[in-house]
# Entry
Amino acid sequence: MSSDEKLDQILSDLEQIKNHLKIVPDKFVTVTDIETKIENYEEYAVNELDISQSTVNNQKSAIRGFLNSSQGIINKDAVKSYLESNDSTSWKSNQLKALRKFIRDYLGLGNWINEFVFSKEKAQIKKTIPNADQLALFCSRLDYQVQMIFLILVTSGLRVGEVLELELDDIDFETNMIDVSKIHQSKNKSSWLSFMTNQAMEFISNFIEDITTDKIFSISYKSVQENFQKVSEETGIKINPHLLRTVFTEKCTKSGIEEKYIDAFCGRIPQSVIRKHYTDYSPEAMKIHYDKVEPFLMLPFDES
# Structure
């Protein structure tokens, strides 16, 4: 084989390797119509990447923030500058997850976005979980609609994005069951179902009497966060929506519920596992486990 033939063979082999590994040359572009591009990404993420709508909404916010900051320019310097605009490692990590999906997977601009990595923050001692009195006081200071969201979050273990998507048909008012199986699904985790306490259901039942649409809540995620922040500052009790999942998990553990059922309540079980072991995760079986934790989730509201 001549030198030229050897070179041709090497180039051919490299091309095959590149195609197999889906290696894409680094590219850089400028987006002019930001909102259209974000809308197109949303359709791609939901239909092609099978990402839940609530996650895509968070990604859209991150992508929009980046594109507005960079004036539509997408290159290494623009990403570096954007990520350096906030010192929070968790913020950088969340932004980067969204930008990877958008730049690498949707736009196909190559793998250069993978060069941006952040080491995980060192483990820290968990903050003290608010006690029942603090939870009740905090809830009572929230706006009325956010109070209802608080009660569902703290007694179900659901994500705030899932609660905001709830419709009336998702709630069984006889058993207190909340069906979120269609709201959040991905390859690694899938929302299934949870319950709320009888106490929470009483409040929710009164709340929905004035609802004229199928959707239960008409408030944005950002507004919920802002209301939590406002009450945290007023009361000195530091609570955010995500912490309520931790409260729920802690109460489940205290009541003796097995970890796999806690994961199911919190939507951390793949759909494939639920299908394979349906009898373990059926609504009837899950209700038996929920009944164990319900007494630990009661809040001492001042009825005066």
